[in-house]
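Box 3.1. Reading complex inputs
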Amino acid sequence: MKLEVIDLGLVDYLEAWDVQKDTLAKVINNDLDSALILCRHYPVVTLGRAASRKSLRLGEELIREKGIKLYNIERGGDATYHGPGQLTVYPVLNLGYFKKDIHWFLRELESLIISSLADLNLPVSRVEGFTGAWIGNKKIASIGIAIKHWVTYHGLSINIKKDDLANFGLIRPCGMDIKVTSLEEELGRQVSVEEVRSSLLNKFSGRLGNN
Amino acid sequence: MVNVILPELGEGITKATVSYWFFKVGEKVKEKDDLVELTTDKATFNLPSPCSGVLSEILHSEGESVEVGQVLALIDNT
């Protein structure tokens, strides 16, 4: 199986969404084995299928007035925020090559995040029953996926820059009153997106790129 | 009549919530069309139609929880 890497850089949410849907169609039709879409988003709040009115701390209009876009999307999970200080990754993988098991895939994404961040000397763990990656009771990476014909889309994002965290205050991340943190905050130094990108890419190719 | 059954979605996953029906009762569906979207934990899963025909009955509407193996809908393929 060949894993194609599509790096979109800093991109508007809708533009990346179109790339996801286009790539998804190619993988479903077997025109492409699998792909990994990497990007950073301009500020946006997305609401997954589990989201409700309680997911937002601020009215939709007020969020939009701040220049932050807001979309209802087809992934699982509740509300989340994406910004330029995060690395967002959309694995478009045919689970037929691996294991047709949603639970397995979510745990696999968690493992990939945990081992990537361990390379940066950051001890991250999973919390039973709460998908994502955590440092103590603070969330550093979020996961929300969708599956069509056993091909995955949507995915994960890792908080890297500390100045991008304030916008999480607009929502209740994952519908809960949880704290979020970033790599910069935890490591006490500047962290480049490139550092995280190359570590994550290594792990992805190692674990999922050779089937 | 063909039963649309909630398939195995993964180890330890015993149920899912119906989050969206792509068709209404009485509408024609084609095999492999997205028929219903199900949600479990942090994932949504689109279940394709097992055959072509007319969606004759929906047994679980949006928001309802369904167990693996349960019938979600009936498709008239005659």
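In summary: Residues 2-76 of chain B form a domain with the OB fold (Dihydrolipoamide Acetyltransferase, E2P) fold (CATH 2.40.50.100).
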